[in-house]
Amino acid sequence: MEVYLDNSATTRTFPEAAGLMQRIMTEEYGNPSSLHRVGLSAEHIVKEAKEIIARTLRVEPGEILFTSGGTESNNMAIIGSALARKRAGNHIITTAIEHPSVLRVMEHLKQEGFSVTIIPPDQTGHIHAEGVLAALTPETILVSCMLVNNEVGTVQPVREIAGGVHRFNPEIRVHTDAVQAYGKIPVLPRELGVDLMSVSAHKLHGPKGVGFLYIKKGTLIRPIIYGGGQQGDLRSGTENVPGIAGMGEAVRLTFADFAGDTEKMKRLKEQLIAGASAMPEVISLSGEAPHIVSLSFAGVRAEVLLHALEDSGIYVSSGSACSSNKKKKGSAVLSAMQLPGELLDTVLRFSLSADNTEEEIRYTVETLEKLVPMLRRYRRG
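Predicted structure:
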């Protein structure tokens, strides 16, 4: 049996989305900037995908900007906001549990003269709004806090943070990385009160290499890619029409039975946590998101258990898959949560989709029950 439980790294593209992309690449191949019929057809495809996405968010289609994915969306939101508002101040606030595509950008901006405050989480992986709000200064121009953490699945109080920030100063921009949230929990930018929101298609059964950035109407950001002036001069470059269409189709299918699929993932998550936690020295670090299970198996190196599970046809992750394996270090998220040192290298992430089944979860638990005691015999020390 093959059990894919690494859906937070990437998901299997819906066949309908893949089929649509193939048809567009071979039959509707025009450049949306071209003025002839073939170009206008491509422009219509892009517009239709934008409308599908906007309906799920209850925003205007014009507030959706297509990108190459979550990393570019995060870079554009943060760098673009910082450059647009640098005359108003140079202070930015973020958290210690952000994705590398946020934290590495913050390091870049520090080198460019910006001041960055990084708010730590508590030991459960949650950011407290009061900690963020206490860090606000007259120089603050941007606050960036993810909605769902990609490693442990904690849901952050973005709505409370955004409300407090805008009460302090309505001109401060609030950005949220919703890559692990959109399609998994209800995400409505207006209710959250955010100005900018990042999403990636391949986390919700769409293609890799495409995503979008929600930009609230009236929010000014500077482009970071220059060229032909596509997408209102904000993101130059010919639009990835097949990818955008595939993302639109994936979004449509994801939200066709959003409540039912979410409830199914919750049941599978509870089943996995209950089964694994019944084993000795297994601790759940899992947050509230319905699709992410984070488990510590004391006495077993995560990488060793990962490959042992792989040999049994079960695919999981030892943290975020969005950084080069050659450069991979210990989890910054787990370190920020102050997980005891002896447990830092014992955590695996099991991430679900609505494609998973109860039978797969039973098989996973049974396999863990066999592998973990065996591997603990080789415990160091």
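Summary: The chain has a mean pLDDT of 94.
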